[in-house]
Amino acid sequence: MSFRTTSAIDYVEDVSPGSGALPPRARYASSDARSLSLNGSWRFRLSPTADAEDDSFAAQGFDAGGWAEVSVPGHWVLQGHGSPIYTNHLYPFPVDPPRVPTKNPTGDHLHTFDLPSDWPSDGGAVLRFDGVESCARVWLNGTDIGEFKGSRLPHEFAVGHLLKPGGNVLAVRVHQWSAGSYLEDQDQWWLPGIFRDVTLLHRPAGGVLDFFVHASYDHVEGLGTLRVDSDVDGRVTVPGLDIDVATGESVTVPVRPWTAETPRLYDGVLATEGERVPLRVGFRTVVLEDGLIKVNGTPLLFKGVNRHEWHPERGRALDLETMREDVLLMKRHNINAVRTSHYPPHPAFLDLCDEYGLWVVDECDLETHGFTEQAWRDNPVDDDRWTPALLDRAARMVERDKNHPSVVIWSLGNEAGTGRGLTAMAEWIRGRDGSRLIHYEGDIDCRDTDVYSRMYADHAEVDRIGRGLDGGTHRRRGLPFILCEYGHAMGNGPGGIADYQHLFESYDRIQGGFIWEWIDHGIKDERFGFAYGGDFGEELHDGNFVCDGLLFPDRTPSPGLVEYKKVIEPVRIVGDRADGTVRVTNAYDFADLSALTFEWSYQVDGETVESGVLPVPELAPGESADVKLPDPPADPRGGETQWTVRATLAADTAWGPRDHLVAWAQFPLSPRPLTVVARSDGPVLGKGQITLGPAAFDARTGALRSIGGIDVRGLRLDVWRAPTDNDNGAAWQPDLRYGPLWRELGLHRMQHRLNSVELGDDALTVRTRVAPAAREVALRTVYRWTSDGTRLRLTVSVAPEGDWRLPLPRLGIRLGLAGSVDGARWFGGGPGEAYPDTTSASMVGRWESTIDALQTPYVRPQENGARADVRWVEIGGLRVEGEPEFWFTARRWTSEQLDAAEHPTDLKAGDTVWVNLDHGQQGIGSQSCGPGALPQYQLRPAPAEFTFLFSEIHG
Ligand code: GAL
């Protein structure tokens, strides 16, 4: 006979959202009612199971003196108790909903506090938790006040009757795993803890309860209509608009509308008998009209990012300054939209979005992705028992965030399959707030949603969708399209985003997209720099898939963000060489160009010789003007010339300083004159070596040894690059994944067979065959060296042999210079790295860098740091010119060492700086989750010839 007892921890595995909490309501940042932050150092005890300890710790008088301490907000696994786990979509426990493992790390938290001496004695009080992962039970002064789930959602409890002036004991038991964990399978670290603020709010008699600010904008009449519905009657005043009305009453006045580009907020007050709450009112109207998402009558183009909350030391416990940094970085990189993947963010983040201007897709805390492993059987979103929990989550999001003008779309969640529960959420949201649209990517037929949304669709499919040739349900065919995720920014990349942007701008139906994702979730770690999945010994993990952001974990912009900024710039500048004009187009949706100043400059061989103001009219959105450039200055040097036009902020703004670069373009005028090198010298065979002009070669192998006084090591053809995350692709990708295929073919272990060393009258010719063991494919490679006595010219000819089925990683030469070399100067693309499909932000000019700064510190080491379109580079006393332009890379380790490294700490500088001079590079693509490099960016083996001119720099 078996039986089961009901136990004190049954709530952990209960599908219900919890008990004891107050109904959800609007969040406001401040009010004249008192509040007390309970953040700080709390006593903490970790237990291995949910019921290892009884609840006696919650009783008053319990002595927790021997306990550890943790910071609240915080995650205990980032404070030395247990460790984080990273999985993408796999549940790190057996899928047996709603049951969770017996091994269920449980953190008991204790905090003792006094009320301030002037804390009002009347009214009530509310205890608010802004976020606890994943399930908490709460006691105040020994009384059990309830338990809740819904990690990234607020929960409030009425506690006035329990408070004492001094010695209040707040006890919170937090379980890492609960039924709620099944609804929170987002691709991120599992990080238990009280990770958002805990606050005690005084609730005066007659104080504000819930309220809903309805502020719409009539773009035809230029009028705003305001109505504040409030559970407690009161008055609404907006002094700047002379508004003074009762709650529930509408008023219409001329206003300036709120948009992400022009985030006009009007300060107001909601005053009830007992409380005054400041309002920040933004008037705007969101509609679905003509199959388009329109705000204030204008269709939007989202230039967005997916943002998880992340801090490399504090995890998802973010402070205000970090949130502000995110918003400022977004604004400074031309980003206009955020999807709060995949849960409502800390509420202060939305205040910042209102203030600085970002369109927000506010996403509910819901993902059940792990059920895909079992063909979605038992998926909670299609099981009525879970529907109350889903509706609770929807309500907690909508009620909390409904007064933010920045929020234009509600998203039901992410990757939760399909089911009745989602439909119920959508219906509830529509009933509560008809003023916004509804999004959910998993609803492929758009039964419940207002926008057709996909992730990682390739360019060709987006093009078909743009043309309306994608089929789909009747409803879907009439809806706008967005890519809620694209451009997977894992490691080096994403590539191909300029090609996406071109599609977005070609079809009205396509209203933009959101790059996956904003920031790498690397955890600061002494051992590795930044840790990723597996670094904590997890039995199941998804490695560095958690590091796929446009920012490195410490918020340094990666080259991907610099590229994105350029791709989405809000001004298009196109030069016309023939008539000396530039066409400037305002690509904002709402703002004119009055905030920008335009400047032209003229470069000869990459050096600016003249510059001046370019008078651009204050174009309205969508308008263009042709603006005449001055006559080009006389150029006595006869060098390569180009124009550069830059648009910068004309004055300091809330998010960027005056002179901040917003948009730019370059267009060439006269091409680069090529250097002619007479073949005046011939090779001379000496004792064990051949000399040719300034160079010495090994007589037997024909290998270059030195140029003048500079030793050169191991110069030879190189095709290998340390595969990028995008080269490797994701395991589930059906397409060709070149990283593994390259390795299988043996491109990382090419052998160089010497066929001949030929001394001609004016040239040294070395013939080789470069091929991997076990294969018949090869690259016949001929090095032809000539000299005019001081300069050395190398022409490399490469002829593929055999049946090549794969593109090459790279094609060029590699050479080694002394390890003491510490920097490089070059004329070409810069300042940052670029690859064939990530060149948008590469600006042609004169640049310099240390060798160390040439490296891009991807959290998992991989190919990086190439500079594009290089005309010449000076490094280690050597000047190298290329015909045609080339890609230049220099590092203190070989590509093989880079390839072997798992963390940057594995890379040790050797006694050589390895330089790659590449004729070609394979594109990057975004196959770590999306499509690979487009055909035009692939480096297909084909006969090739390229030349480098070497000379020693004297003086
Ligand atoms: C998507 C998912 C994201 C993330 C991304 C890959 O499928 O929505 O949460 O996992 O793929 O990095």
TrEMBL record:
Catalytic activity reported: Hydrolysis of terminal non-reducing beta-D-galactose residues in beta-D-galactosides
GO molecular function: hydrolase activity
Pfam families: Bgal_small_N (PF02929), Glyco_hydro_2_C (PF02836), Glyco_hydro_2_N (PF02837), LacZ_4 (PF16353)
Keyword entries, A-Z: Glycosidase, Hydrolase
Coiled-coil region list: none
SUPFAM superfamilies, per database record: (Trans)glycosidases, beta-Galactosidase/glucuronidase domain, Galactose mutarotase-like, Galactose-binding domain-like
Keyword Hydrolase among UniProt keywords: yes
Domain Beta galactosidase small chain/: 691-951
EC identifiers of the protein: 3.2.1.23
Similarity remark: Belongs to the glycosyl hydrolase 2 family.
Name the record gives this protein: Beta-galactosidase
Lineage: Bacteria, Bacillati, Actinomycetota, Actinomycetes, Kitasatosporales
